[in-house]
Amino acid sequence: xxxxxxxxxxxxxxxxxxxxxxxxxxxxxxxxxxxxxxxxxxxxxxxxxxxxxxxxxxxxxxxxxxxxxxxxxxxxxxxxxxxxxxxxxxxxxxxxxxxxxxxxxxxxxxxxxxxxxxxxxxxxxxxxxxxxxxxxxxxxxxxxxxxxxxxxxxxxxxxxxxxxxxxxxxxxxxxxxxxxxxxxxxxxxxxxxxxxxxxxxxxxxxxxxxxxxxxxxxxxxxxxxxxxxxxxxxxxxxxxxxxxxxxxxxxxxxxxxxxxxxxxxxxxxxxxxxxxxxxxxxxxxxxxxxxxxxxxxxxxxxxxxxxxxxxxxxxxxxxxxxxxxxxxxxxxxxxxxx
Length: 338
What we know:
Oligomer: single chain
Distance between the termini: 182 Å
Largest sheet: 7 strands, mixed, barrel
Mean pLDDT: 77
Radius of gyration: 67 Å
């Protein structure tokens, strides 16, 4: 069977295309002809990590970076890890990006001690990458490293202070300093006044203390009198405490009760005094008796011969007795005729 040249050219072209695709994938780090095991890791800063960069475990390359995707906000960059070898990775393993002095970037996976392994398409934990340049400076010149670190801290501090001390804050601090100066001046004046107050010769406090001393001396000199006064006061209070106030109050209360009962009886119609004050019969009888006495006195005054006959030659008074008192009697308590 004869194969035409066109067939040979087509077959060679197909083989070349397949080899080209396989070579391109190989250069990209994809596992050709094997299982594709992928893990993911999320970083805030990938420090130049690119596709096909190696993935290393304990110094041995076990895979490469398939791709990186930060989305539109670029706040979280997801790294797709393509494993070339079938390696058991514990679930407490961490991924860290290391950058060498020559600028080469790789992803290191640091294995943990967990007995549970990650599954494909799981996400690895991440930590902050090591500062290789800083470690090298620390080993070569520790003093220079510490100075550099201190300068960075000082720069950060100065930047923070500069942000805090805006113009308003500066004006406030200036005002505080002015107030502090005024307060210091006031304290100086107060100190001078206090010094004058404490002066042993002319100070008011010294005079006050002298007066207090004199007063206490007088109290000391009259101590016996004060003690006697207190003794008298104690004796008086003892006598007052021995008085039977309760008995006295009970007696007074009984007296008030009796007086109240007596007044109540007087106000009522009970007893002679109550009847005398409240019964009108006695008043009427006394008024009638008074009226009769007035009538009798008027009759004696008008017709004395009827009662006393002292005339030898006179005639006997034959006029009848008075039936009504005479009207010349003043303020006589007569009854008015109805």
